[in-house]
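Write out the bound-state structure for magnesium ion.
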Amino acid sequence: MVRLSLLLRTLDVAKTKRSKVRKNRFIDSLRIHVKAGAGGMGLPKFGGMGGKGGDVYIEAKENIELKYIKDKWPNKRFKAGIGQNSRVYRILGEPGEDLTIPAPVGLTVISEHGRVLADLNKDGDRVLVAAGGVGGGPQNQFSGQKGQTQSLTLDLKLIADVGLVGFPNAGKSTLLKALSRASPKIANYPFTTITPNLGVMMYNDLRQISVADLPGLIEGAHRNYGMGHKFLKHLVRTRLLMFVVDIGGFRLKPQSPFRSALETIFLLNQELELYKEDLTVKPALLAITKMDTKDAEKKFQKLKEEINYYKEYPEELPDELKSRHFVGFDDVIPICATKAVNIVHLQQRIREIIDFHVEIKTSQKDGQCTEIAIPKNEQESIQLF
Ligand SMILES: Nc1nc2c(ncn2[C@@H]2O[C@H](COP(=O)(O)OP(=O)(O)OP(=O)(O)O)[C@@H](O)[C@H]2O)c(=O)[nH]1
Ligand SMILES: [Mg+2]
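---
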């Protein structure tokens, strides 16, 4: 009996733990159903016009999460008001009330046929997703028209300045913790992170740069292996990719092939390219982690030489590591996130590189083509591809 109650209690704990996890889960995609209001009926005898049905809009607002919509409207159905009928004492029916669904910035609105209806990229961006029916009048035999209905997918891409890209267990979450005040889950097994974590780096002059720690990628991620491209999409909106690579390499399972740090870099490049070629032209930085482990310094020197070699002779890369285009790293920085070694330098370089690319973009827009030199710490940074 005692055992049974103990078992029940354990199950209970497990249940509450699970429901807690589910409740707090970050969501980046949501299907909703929208229905605009029907137009009101006209009044033929007096030529009265029915009111127009209300429209449904989606509008981006800062500080709103998709989860808010899901929690507030659990059935995920949205309906605008109907137009009023024309009456003897109110010959023009009142229009139905419009409905505006608040949504996070960075949202893509997709129709049920997969067509992108809008990208809401800044606060206040707004899209009409269902138009209200026209009110009844002489042109339509005084019967109000139905409002449009649509099933929509709301797809959220996080907006962060920096996106951490790496194989599982490389130390991405540990690095996010070292760079910011975020406290992501860290553990010595692959796929510890299953939903993105966001952190903000604060500089002395109060400048803030946000960093997104994403679930680890594995070979075939673009084909949806592992966590798949469900999370690769979040890189599209980042300003800087930070490859996070374990100097000791990576092995997913005992039966999987071992991948050295060098191979990891090229495989990550491939995954990005196969998902979306544009990703490989983004500004990027390479952080080599776990520099406190055995022989790390020696391995790092060798890695730099190999990278430089393949930069010169990319055709010599084995076929399985080749890509059409290689990410151009602005810097490569060895770190140890657990002991906070080189973290301040990394923070500085992140800032400089982001600003450098903003300046280039601005000068290109202005029609100038000025070369801007990035200050570099010669010892720790090398220009790769
Ligand atoms: N020795 C050493 N261990 C590290 C360092 N950084 C991270 N680790 C360890 O590596 C393991 C994986 O770290 P995580 O930060 O969870 O790795 P991750 O890349 O976020 O992994 P996923 O979320 O599974 O993709 C943990 O045991 C960390 O303590 C480091 O600089 N040195
Ligand atoms: Mg992690």
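---
The first strand starts at residue 29 and ends at 35.
The pocket of magnesium ion (ligand 2) is lined by residues 172-173, 192-193, 213 (CB under 6 Å).
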